[in-house]
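Ticket reopened. Same input as before:
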Amino acid sequence: MDGIRGYFDSIYSEDPDYFGPTASSFARLAVGLLLRERPGGRVAEIGCGTGQDLAYFAAHGFEVEGCDLSSVACRRANERLAALRGEVPPLEHVRPADGLSFLEGLPAGSLDAAYANLYLNLEVDDAHRALTTRAIGRALRPGGWWFVRARSTADPGVGRGLRLGPGLVDPGGGRPPLRFYTFTELSGLAGDTFEAAYLREHPDGEPDFPVVVWDGVFRRRG
Ligand SMILES: C[S@@+](CC[C@H](N)C(=O)[O-])C[C@H]1O[C@@H](n2cnc3c(N)ncnc32)[C@H](O)[C@@H]1O
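Engineering reply: fixed in the latest deploy. New output:
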């Protein structure tokens, strides 16, 4: 994890808006879906980066918290959230932590939604990912939502770098290894705990960095 932390610390030190200055299309989809059901609620994001998506949830009336391995990202995310709420000094809505330990520290059944945008691509250890998925199931209330966006095996990035295994690539240049997802792998995250409510593969990204992602929406079984 030190490699991931160091890599993202340097990315965010250079450009806090590296993943875009405003909320992603996935955050917009999630907020639209949540608001259709009921206003407000508690949302947690793992690997929230500098918090542009969390700020979007907060601006729409949700209580938010999150974590990221990068302390540079956490500082920026807390500043962003504090600016929305007029908090002086910024409160610690976002903590520098691994997603799994963050989730395990949340009270069981306390979340209305868990959110992970381009986080699971960095979960290259299958056992750790399975524990993270289980921890999400524990932290969500029955009927709670899990939003997952992850790069697909149709992404051009699959062909760039050293192939380490099926869907597993070392992109080189000091960047962390990445896992790309097939439909079966993404839908398989549901296991017995979740019901897959929505799965869509589509192009995304910027003209100079095109990607193909899965948007997955899972619902915690009651
Ligand atoms: C591709 S970036 C996406 C950031 C943010 N979700 C966004 O959409 O802008 C992935 C983020 O996950 C964080 N990350 C990777 N592995 C992590 C882990 N095990 N625990 C917490 N954060 C992690 C990285 O530091 C990075 O900020």
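The domain at 2-220 is CATH 3.40.50.150 (Rossmann fold). The pocket of S-adenosylmethionine is lined by residues 1, 4, 8, 19, 24, 46-49, 53, 67-70, 73, 98-99, 117-119, 122 (CB under 6 Å). Please confirm and we'll close it.
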